[in-house]
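Exercise 7.
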Amino acid sequence: MRGLDVLFRNVGLLAVVTVFGLQAQGIRCDLVSKDTLIGGQPRKQCLDIDVLRGTTVTIPSNVTRLDNDGFALCRKAVVQGGNADVVFILDQSGSMFADRAWVNTGVNPNDTVYFFQSGGTGCNYTSTTGNVIVPVIEQPRTIPRLTNGTGCNQYSGDPLNARAAAVRQAIDYVASNSPNSTAGWLGFGSNVGTARRPLQLNSTTNVNTVKNNLTIANLSGTTYRYRSAPARKRLH
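Solution. The predicted structure, written as tokens, is:
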């Protein structure tokens, strides 16, 4: 199902959600943009923010993944911004973690799906065969490999634990483009977890303090309501 050929015309609000509860589906379907030529070389067509006017990007509901080079912003559209106070919110609920993996050998190349907790009603969660090494961005993990994925539908939201790495990269970006800005973060599950009050990103020490304190946690439950209130408090 590759090649959805979504070109994203007339877009006013670009929401980039990095691994916050991305739901996998039974059939892999990658989002890719149209092929084009840039400087005579084949490239994926980029999204030009300069021409976006008032509408929202809509991604088809059956998209499960982003192609490695399938989504890109045009360089000329990225400009230096003004100062900002930012608090990043990380979903630290148990559903973000991968506890089991199933390798679908019925497709070529093989496709690996990750599940959390019991894998869902009807999933034989105890029948495993060996392990799978998850190429986690923070640090590789080894989890049991399911014998069969039939009936398993509790998909891990962030099996690669990419959200912490993504926030660190975002902090570096803000620091390099707007060093007088401040940044902090908080995690949540059923309640607010570990948090880092914002620091001004005008020194290497402050930038490293915010980033080094940023850790992945496995908190039980998920309560999405009221998470913005603690974030707002940390802006003051």
